[in-house]
Amino acid sequence: MDAQNHGQKEEQVYICPMHPEVRQDGPGICPECGMALVKAKSERGEAKQSGHEQHEGFNKHEGHSLAQFARKFWVSLILTVPVLWYSDLAKELLKITAPPFPGAQYLALGLGSIVFFYGGWVFLAGAWRELRARLPGMMTLIAVAISAAYLFSVFETLRGSPHTLFWELVTLITIMLLGHYLEMKAVQGAQGALKELSKLLPDTAEVVSGNSTKIIPLAELRVGDIVLVKPGGKVPSDAAVIKGKSEVNESIVTGESKPVEKTVGSQVIAGTINGDGSLQIRVNKIGESTFLAGVMRLVAEAQASKSRLQVLSDRAAFYLTIIAIATGTLTFVVWLLARAGVVFATERLVAVLVIACPHALGLAVPLVASISTTLAARNGLLVKQRMALEAARKLDMVLFDKTGTLTTGEFGVERVLPNLGPELGDRAQGVAKVLEYAASVDRGSEHYIARAIVKRAEESKLQLLEVSDFLRIPGLGAKAKIKDQMVYVGSEALLKDLGVVVPVNLLPEISHLAGLGKTIIYVVMENSLLGVIALSDLIREESRQAVKDLKTMGVKVAMLTGDSEEVALWVASELGIDEYFARVLPGAKSAKVKLLQAKGYKVAMVGDGVNDAPALTHADIGIAIGAGTNVAIESAGIILVKNDPRDIVKIIKLSRTTYRKMIQNLFWATGYNVVALPLAAGVLAFKGILLQPALAAVFMSLSTIIVAINALFLRRQKL
């Protein structure tokens, strides 16, 4: 019962569907966009909902707000028609004379009042909240404009004057409502990151119980449950495969369209789509612990956070509001002093206030940022801090941690040197025999070097031999009998213990490989050397392309590693890296970041987010690579789902494109105000050029819609 009450209390918080940062304790109107606030789901409630339920709930509230604006627009439009019909505009421009009737002079007052209070209430309520928060903005300007026009018109009507602004008032409110509606329609797709992610989850799961299965709601799924995922079905929760084989489409997680093979022991992620095979999976994470929930949290955090440009645009919008009110007041006074009449002066005041509404300016940056955050998530780039994404465009140095980032973090066979003799035949046969004997012995070992040798033999499709009397030799290697002969696989120390001498012809190449930091393993049969195997941490093929692309973009690449100078030099030369640091202890990595920063570089540190945490924190941008399902790495500003260094290129490209879009929108929003504000004030009135309030509303709405559409083009960006 307490839990239920607690949940009910949490649901009393109301938020704006378009501006989640707007929160209050009761229902009302968003001061940013005028939409009705909706009940915020508690985290507990969200965890209990399926993906589609959350999605439908969002649409319902969002649809209600859109319907509200649409309804107000249509009612206001219908009432605007008779007001226009009986106005001076119809008589002078359209040459239409409406039929008179008793009390016709009060028609505009009655209908105009309905439009003002019914259609304009969202603006009045929004202005009240802005003023109460001491943050006057767009709603304040609109409210002052329509209030000035309405109060002046009421006063004129009651004193019997025909000079009113009712037709300007009703058309202004009607056009503003239409503009808001069209803007929300344009924006709703961009603001739907969380909505789109929530759709990825299925509503139900098919749980295996004995020899049968049972379909249950997703909310009833528990850790440890065994779930059947049929071909084409969605994975309901993070889990491990315990039976079956299939390929799973993980593009929603990694942005990689190629399906990933899943066998027993593989991990699968909630929301991913199964291929042609059937899988049985054991659930290991549910609800808020799943990867998808983590991604949704990160997207929400990123969309709630503000970039430097957004802070700038918010401040500019605030100052524009103050300037507009001051300019409007000055305009009103100047035209009164110029004996233009109170009607004309009030028209200019209303036009100035409407044209200066900073809606386009307030929307210019957050909308682009929201779209870029969504685009990043679709490409496997999880943005935790929007500042980090914005700063990525200025990077001129990317510092990679070697192991697990530029390299796979797993040992692989680099070279096989057979000790060619009569019993080994030609070189190809010799390489195969050395691998075959070494892998046959090492098949019984769990050592990472042994696993690498076995893996290479399997990749070469070699048939491993039967062994007996296997024995691991601690610190040296292993031995076993093959065809009644003892075969040893191990280090140079083992070779010395056996008293085996390396042939002179092999020494130069062994010495060269050792100088490059390769691990050298010797294979001995009885008392003679079969051959030598050189192993190393394997370089990712993606690393070569990443370094090349970064350098093409004008970004330098550096590397740090705890390995020897020889290993660091080899990797750096293989990849074409500009600078490297060898034998760096985990605690000293941040010092290398500071060293590069001291040289004037804007540094991005790329690491695994565990032992690289201090360096990630000290860098201008911390990027955790290969985070997989661990999306809670606090030290990184951006998290990459895949172990793919090429995604660093995507980050920089997205950052530059996002910034360009923001600047375009800011230029349009501010440029529009700079040009339109003097026209609204009437500086060209002596030439007969005047901007009527209704036309000012059209231009204001158009500027906002243009900014929204320009931002939406970002969704087509290919990373």
Protein model, in words:
With about 725 residues, the chain is α+β, with helices and mostly antiparallel strands. It contains 26 helices and 25 strands. The strands form five sheets. Strands 13-25-24-23-14-21-22 form a seven-stranded mixed β-sheet, sandwiched between helices. A hairpin with a 2-residue loop joins strand 19 (about 520-525) and strand 20.
How would you summarize this macromolecular structure in one to three sentences?
This protein is α+β, with helices and mostly antiparallel strands. The chain contains 26 helices and 25 strands.
Element layout with pairings:
Blueprint: H1 2-10, E1 14-15, E2 23-24, E3 38-39, H2 43-48, H3 51-85, H4 88-92, H5 107-119, H6 121-132, H7 138-158, H8 166-187, H9 193-198, E4 204-209, E5 212-217, E6 226-229, E7 238-244, E8 246-249, H10 251-254, E9 260-262, E10 267-268, E11 273-274, E12 279-285, H11 291-304, H12 308-337, H13 342-355, H14 359-378, E13 381-383, H15 386-391, E14 397-401, H16 402-406, E15 407-418, H17 427-442, H18 448-459, E16 468-473, E17 477-482, E18 485-490, H19 492-498, H20 507-515, E19 519-525, E20 528-539, H21 541-552, E21 556-560, H22 565-575, E22 579-581, H23 589-598, E23 603-607, H24 613-618, E24 621-624, E25 638-640, H25 647-681, H26 693-712
Parallel strand pairs: 14-21, 14-23, 21-22, 23-24, 24-25
Antiparallel strand pairs: 1-2, 1-3, 4-5, 4-6, 6-12, 7-10, 7-12, 8-9, 8-11, 13-25, 15-20, 16-17, 17-18, 18-19, 19-20
Helix pairs in contact: 3-5, 3-8, 5-7, 5-8, 6-7, 7-8, 7-13, 8-26, 11-14, 12-13, 12-14, 12-25, 13-25, 13-26, 14-25, 14-26, 17-18, 25-26
